Amino acid sequence: MPAFQKGMRAAALASGAIYLDNSRLFHGHEVCMEDTWARGLHLDLADHFPWDEDTARQSFHPNDRGHGAFASCLTQLYRSGLREASCADPASTGTPVLRGGAWDDSFGPLRNEATGTCLDSSGGSSANGTKTVGWDCHGGRNQGWWYDSTRRSVHTELTHDRCLDAPGAAYGPGTGLIIWNCHGGANQQFVRDGATLRPAAAPGMCLTLAAAQEPLRLQTCNGSANQRFA
After folding, report:
1. How far is CA 39 from the centre of its chain?
2. Minimal CA–CA distance to 139: which of 115, 118, 160, 161?
3. Which of 12, 25, 142, 160 has the most CB atoms around it within 10 Å of its CB?
């Protein structure tokens, strides 16, 4: 998917076409999610028996909500006048949101000034509860992050539906940060203050990487390089 999406964007730029990046639109709404925007395996045996390739022709296609999401994105795009834009549901509200530019330009590493290592979704996992740690920078998608300044959420590049999270809304020293389903709650809201990232609900605490491959934790802001990310 990333390679296909990059190729589509390059073709649009070369031809002067308007480009809408929907590559993350269904994140959080995949098959088997609570609010799915796509069909699972759909076998229409009533119309096609015995089974043939047409029996499953609707499988893994958008359902009515998925088509509605596409329509919403296209409507927002044409009203915006933008030549290039992206659309997704960043807080899993069920309402797609349009923004200028493509997702390729939004995600990037968060490199710790003291350790030189990058913020990493441990093991390349996007499962709820995955620890965030420092790790040697390698440019993988589990080291790409996007800060949504409107909602103040920090999203992993692995999937748009996972956000940096202070579990249990605990903001005390030593609290380890994880990734969790994006929901827009206070414990997923962070403020960028210079090179620091701070919980919006506890601005005196800073995201801190004590050593190169340590877990990311909250500590009282002290101005140290271990609390600065670029």
Report:
1. 22
2. 118
3. 160
Neighbouring-strand partners of residue 132: 121
Q: State the Cα–Cα distance between residues 148 and 133, nearest whole angstrom.
A: 21
Q: Which of 135, 147, 151 is nearest to 192 (CA)?
A: 147
Which residues does 74 contact at the CB level (< 8 Å), separation at least 6?
A: 20
**CA 19, 25, 27: angle at the middle one, nearest 5?**
145
Contact 29, 89 (CB under 8 A): yes
| The token pair that represents 228 in the structure block | 């600065």
CA dihedral (96, 100, 105, 109) in degrees, to 10, reads -60
| Whole-angstrom distance, CA of residue 80 vs CA of residue 216 | 38
Whole-number Å distance between alpha carbons of 23 and 7: 12
Where do we find the tokens 């605490």? Answer: 205
Q: What is the pLDDT of residues 23-66, one digit of tens each?
A: 999 998 988 888 999 988 877 666 666 666 666 677 888 999 99
Cα separation, 153 vs 209, in Å, equals 19
Given CA atoms 135, 138, 142, 147 in this order, what sign does their dihedral have?
Answer: positive
The whole-model pTM stands at 0.86
pLDDT on residue 70: 96
Give the integer Cα–Cα distance in Å for 114 and 100: 33
d(CA 52, CA 222): 66
Per-position b or e across 195-223, b if 16+ CB within 10 A of its CB: ebbbbeebeebbbbbbeeebbbbbbebee
